[in-house]
Write a structure and sequence with these properties.
Elements: E1 2-3, H1 14-20, H2 40-57, E2 64-69, H3 72-82, E3 86-90, H4 95-98, H5 101-106, E4 111-114, H6 124-130, E5 138-144, H7 156-165, E6 169-173, E7 189-193, E8 204-209, H8 234-268, E9 273-274, E10 285-289, H9 295-301, E11 305-306, H10 322-326, H11 331-335, E12 337-341, H12 348-364
Parallel strand pairs: 1-11, 3-4, 3-5, 5-6, 6-7
Antiparallel strand pairs: 2-8, 7-8, 9-10, 10-12
Length: 366
């Protein structure tokens, strides 16, 4: 099986697995303590959590705190629902942001979705128009760093500068960028996920800039600095921390490897049309379309290659991608698009074999 779906999830790094094992202890072992307990085993588990917190924070801006969550979706919900004022966001954002329209508006707050450009970048012109002095009450501008479906990188510093003119906070969904490119020091809230950087599933984090206040979503114990109640998993935290540490050490190496894979994939799929920006993007994401392509048939014909027709969250819905529609593609164009994702553990041989299988199967469709 050839895996080319790194945007959905990434393989667990051996270093992350090793870091988790001591905290998956059984009877007679010392690593199963509750990190919120005051006894020795609890303190040992708590120390492991704090080491992981520092490792995760090392890839984020200074002047903030890391709140562990069950994943980036929870972190985004905490930020969007826990802040004050109206929300501005963009049409190509993840569903974890866009679907917060219901709980946000239920609290009497506004929620406005702004357009994106043809390359997938947020429209700065639309944002400027939305924050004119005549529109008070904007509390938060939410924009992702790297788009999960098309790989386009947003101009976060420019977005933040416009938001600051209104006194609004900036929320960055950095799930696809964290550990791959630098997270700009311009956001007030940053949501990340472990399993996108070769860490375990089931854990993420929300970075909160010092001085930013949020209302919690979950109650019951006040763990995680009063913002996220519930017992933390030392094993998941340790795996996340180890993955973050490795990502920091390998960032340049990983980017060079991904760039070489991107170039080779583009050579093999030279007759396909790129979706998203060719220049402002993370090259581990290759979203392409081919006129008249039946993607369902393609995926059936190439069953030994794992790739995507959109985000994993919307898989099987039958609806065209909201991101591809947002950049101006027709339903037919969106439904004739595929997403290939590759990264650290993808070999050149695997990429070539997988992409060549896709190319042959697509050509056989005529």
């Amino acid at each position: 099986m050839i895996y080319l779906d790194y945007q959905a999830t990434t393989p667990l790094a051996p270093e992350a697995r090793e870091a988790m094992l001591p905290w998956l202890a059984g009877p007679g072992e010392a690593g199963f303590g509750n990190p919120h307990s005051a006894h020795r085993m609890g303190r040992q588990a708590a120390a492991a959590v704090e080491v992981a917190r520092d490792q995760v924070a090392a890839l984020l801006p200074p002047g903030g705190r890391v709140i562990f969550t069950g994943g980036a979706t929870e972190g985004l919900n905490l930020a969007l629902q826990g802040c004050r004022g109206d929300v501005l966001t963009f049409a190509a954002e993840h569903a974890a942001v866009l679907d917060c329209v219901r709980p946000v508006t239920a609290r009497g707050r506004g929620f406005t979705v702004l357009p994106v450009l043809e390359d997938g970048q947020a429209s700065l012109e639309a944002l400027r128009a939305a924050v004119l002095p005549g529109r008070p009450g904007i509390g938060l501008v939410a924009a992702m760093l790297v788009n999960n479906e098309i790989g386009t990188v947003n101009p976060l510093p420019e977005i933040a500068a416009i938001a600051r003119e209104q006194g609004a906070l900036v929320l960055c969904d950095a799930v696809q960028g964290y550990g791959r490119i630098a997270v700009p020091d311009c956001a007030d809230l940053v949501a990340i996920s472990a399993h996108k950087i070769h860490g375990p599933k089931g854990i993420g984090a929300l970075w909160v800039r010092d001085g930013v206040e949020l209302e919690p979503l979950m109650f019951g114990g006040g763990q995680e600095q009063g913002l996220r109640s519930g017992t933390l998993s030392p094993a998941l935290c340790a795996g996340f921390g180890a993955a973050a540490k490795l990502a920091a050490e390998r960032m340049a190496q990983d980017a060079a490897h991904v760039g070489a894979l991107w170039d080779r994939a583009r050579e093999i799929l030279s007759g396909w049309t790129l979706n998203g920006s060719a220049a402002q993007r993370w090259k581990g994401n290759l979203n392409l379309r081919r006129e008249g392509l039946d993607v369902a048939r393609l995926m059936s014909d190439v069953r030994d290659v794992c790739f995507s027709a959109g985000s994993a969250c919307a898989s099987g819905s039958g609806r065209p991608s909201h991101v591809l529609r947002a950049i101006g593609l027709s339903d037919a164009e969106a439904k004739s698009s595929i997403r290939l994702g590759f990264g650290r553990y993808t070999t050149l041989d695997e990429l070539e074999r997988g992409v060549e299988k896709i190319e042959r199967a697509a050509r056989q469709q005529g």
